[in-house]
Fold this sequence. Notes:
By secondary structure, the chain is α/β, with parallel strands linked by helices. It starts with a helix and ends with a strand. Calcium ion binds near residues 109, 202, 203 and 222.
Amino acid sequence: MMHVQYSTNEFEQKYTYDGEDLGAVYTPERTVFRVWAPLADSVTVNLYTSGNAGEDDLIDRLVMKPDVNGTWTAEKADDLNGVYYTYLVSRNGETQEACDPYARTTGVNGERAMVIDLALTNPKGWDKDCDPHGEERITDAVIYELHIRDISSDRSAGIRNVGKFLGLVETGTVTPSGIPTGLDHMKELGITHVHLLPVADYGSVDEKRLEEAQFNWGYDPVNYNVPEGSYSTDPYHGEVRVREMKQMVKTLHDNGISVVLDVVYNHVYDADEFCFNKIVPGYFSRIDAEGNYSAGSGCENDNATERSMVRKYIVDSVAYWADEYHIDGFRFDLVGLIDIETVRAVMEKVSRKHPNVIFYGEGWTMGTGLTKEGVLLATQNNSAELPGFAFFSDTMRDGLRGHVFYYSQRGYISGGKGLANVIEQCFLGKAPDWCKTPSQSVNYASCHDNYTLMDRITLAAPEASWEEWVRMNNLAAVIYMTAEGIPFLQAGEEMLRRKLDADGNIVENSFKSPDFINGLKWDCLNEKTYQDVYAYYRGLIAFRKAHRQLRLTTPEEVERYVTPVEGLPKDVVAMRIAGDEGDKKTDGIFAIFNPNRTAVEINLPEGVWSVCINAERAGTDPIEMITGEKVKVEPISATVLVKLRKKG
Ligand code: CA
């Protein structure tokens, strides 16, 4: 079968194109098209007035000439900004019409590409725009995972541009009772990075029916280099989605927030319909011995990232988002299905121009039908092969809240036993099976997948009281927010987010659930208990930012600064963290985590200690001073103390 030959050395030597000019290269004088179609008999470019597939509005047809390495080119001397186009690719008497895999934007639903003058889409001050946290290290980040719709879809958000990129640029938005929402909330919380669920064009929301209620997380890519149309105010005009997404990035940057994109290079929405596969049949996808698409992701197809032109495509795509949209970080969906060489090539190319862009992903091990021998995948287990790329720590997540697939299993916070050692290791920025360094460990208790933290707590500890659930939540937050590594939270965790259907049942997988399940319920902040949790998270983030020794980058530094305390009551974990030489006022931190339903007393090293975090409050200001030898830690809570340096 044809797809077998794609991965041979002969094919790759003959047909690997390494130029930077694939797609429609625009200047006001002319546009030059180049497409990679190594097996085609002929290729033409169709130029159209509109972006609507099927519309009878052909302007011109350009016959492409075969060029090097399987590429075809054509050019038209004219200003084509705003002209839509497709490729017509013929082979063995069959013709396919396809969007351009290198499309910079498209018409509605991503079916026709559009030639675009990108310079005209730049917001004011774009040439001076930069990553507000560009000088920092990955362990300095506090990452907030958000779906574009969720921040604005609930009426209590008070945001005008519901479900749009522009919903993230509105300032001064409040609930009916005057509580800040949206961008102002994110700023107040103190996060450094907002991580957006997929914003590249995806297929599961019909951009022609936006007046109807639709929702999807967006893990079903159609055009990898084009913003999703449903997040723009006008999906029919290709320049609008580009302009509005850039405006969003610029405004977030102006407000001190860096932007991470969740990118889905492991599979596509529909492998047969994916434009790259229409142009080069089956090239983009792994196919098993029976000729079926390999589907390790459970999403019907896996991208054949190990093939040279898929690799180049992914590298070019990530670099494009970094260059053109000033994106500051990339979270790779199911990166364990992508080969290490491709991930390295991405990091190498992006880092050349943007050395501080951060990279992390889901390194789960999954079966997939690789098309080459000896390919290493970017799984957690191979983390040592990918320095500079971090992985979600399911070790910490499951240690804190219980096993991801056994929802009634208790975690450390909810009364699980024998987990102190796992929590201790994770606090040190390690995971026994796969991680040796804090700069590769993304520490978290909840993300969009699986139950929210509060939902998971109620399932694990159904007998507990509401007050105990809140304490469990906050104990989880203290642990991952003070641990060595990269803290990460799902938007709304800081106000006890839940996902409940109309009957009050908990929804585990809300990937296409309606807004009333997924949207952030801002008016919960009217209630004191939610306000208190929100204040607690703000305090934790401020505390983390104030102490450099919680943000170490190497195991050697962790070894030097952080010492687990021995001889503690059962299930209690405590850490002595040495002082930072640069800090004249304080001399180290003592952190104690008590998951027990009884209070414990812990011996303190000598000195004057100020409590900055306890069961009720968290922050940088002392709550109380302790000069004695012992500190009492309330049930299901943490106490974190800072030692004051002796004057003189
Ligand atoms: Ca779309």
